[in-house]
Amino acid sequence: MTEFSCKIPTNKQANSISNVPGYLMPANIHLFVVVDEIGKDGFLVRKIYSSPDNPHLVAKNLPEFQIKNEVWPEKYGMRPVAPNSSATVAQHVYSSRKYPSSYLSTSSEYPNGSPRFEGKTVYIDIEKAKAAGAKLVSTEEILKALEDYKKNAPKSIAKIDEIAEWVKNIDKEVLVKSEKVPASAIFTPTSQKVTSAFIKGVKVVRVFAIAFTAYDLKIATEESFKQNSVKPISVEAVKQAGGWGAAIAGARIGLVAGAAVGIETGPGAIVSSAIGGIVFGTAGYLGATWLTEYIQE
Questions:
Q1: What is the pLDDT of residues 265-292, one digit of tens each?
Q2: Distance (Å, rounded) from C-alpha 193 to C-alpha 23?
Q3: In terms of Cα–Cα distance, which of 276, 239, 270 is closest to 256?
Q4: Which of 28, 39, 133, 295 has an alpha carbon within 20 to 30 A of 84's alpha carbon?
Q5: pLDDT 10s digits, 144-172
Q6: Nearest partner of 195 among 262, 287, 203, judged by Cα
Q7: How far apart are CA 281 and CA 223, in angstroms?
Q8: What 3-state class would DSSP assign to 176?
Q9: Whole-angstrom Cα distance, residue 238 to residue 275?
Q10: Within its chain, how far is the Cα of 156 from the centroid?
């Protein structure tokens, strides 16, 4: 009898049935903490509407989903008014109302933003926004675009110069070009402060949980010993861990995870030394699916 089987007394009556409760499937839950820092490349500041009832926002007659983007970007993300617009940088800065564009105006004057604008303040994590595909137009690039714009609007040179002065010395304007800046890249002053303190204090913002089924790992481990190879146990570990995002966390966990992964008794110790580096380290760069196929081959 193995640890996963049992014997009970039966009778000799034909077709008799006896219900036997089975053992609970043993499994180990391992939590891996991964630090996800914010503001690696700094923050941009944007002033937004504090309420969907704001008269200026109501006048825009936007669809409901975009109103949510305008008022609660930290929850729904942030979108430009006209993501498919062909309006230029200069046209947007000169008059975003006249020329709805694919740009979002922000300020590099962290943490207060431009004093010319009122409203709710939010911060855009530059690194996270870029990772999501956003492109930035620097203050210097805006000033160059306005200077070139004078050639097309000679009657508006005085106004353009005034705007350029605001851009350079007051707004410190930076444009963000993106179909959508994800909510994960946007913070309110409160959430930014809390998250930063959280990271600084305990270095935790994301927790991954892996449930390894002991039976499957046991079978794979025994097969590894039969073959005198780490491949079977490696494949099983990758299969069970792949769903939790090894491609994201693997590179950060690496060999450290090896000490926490495994079965407490028997040949499961092979997991601790070998799989920590193979599974979590390599999968972090190449992905769990690729690694499974590679090891299997």
A1: 333 333 433 344 444 444 444 444 544 5
A2: 48
A3: 276
A4: 39
A5: 999 999 999 999 999 999 999 999 999 99
A6: 203
A7: 23
A8: strand
A9: 9
A10: 44
